Task: structure prediction
Amino acid sequence: MLPDDDPTPDEQVALADSVGLALLVVLDSLTPSERLEFVLHDMFAVPFHEIGQILGKPAAASKVIASRARRKVQATDRPADPSRPLIGR
Result:
């Protein structure tokens, strides 16, 4: 596939499947509270005070849990992207 070409429907499905599987692997590394914080706040922009109400915790505790989840997600091993140069990885 050339960079200017749109992906074919088969390529779109394959990409969606691989991204979905990767997301499941990453989310599986989180505790249930971290998973809830990460998905609700980072993916759906739910405010911390609302997530805290769901978890029965203050907003400050909710922020700490989300921060921990983000660090875990960022630390998760990612497959190498062959299009990126080795320097600076």
In short: Confidence is low (pLDDT under 50) at residues 84-89. Helices lie at 9-28, 32-43, 48-55, 59-75. The first helix runs from residue 9 to 28.
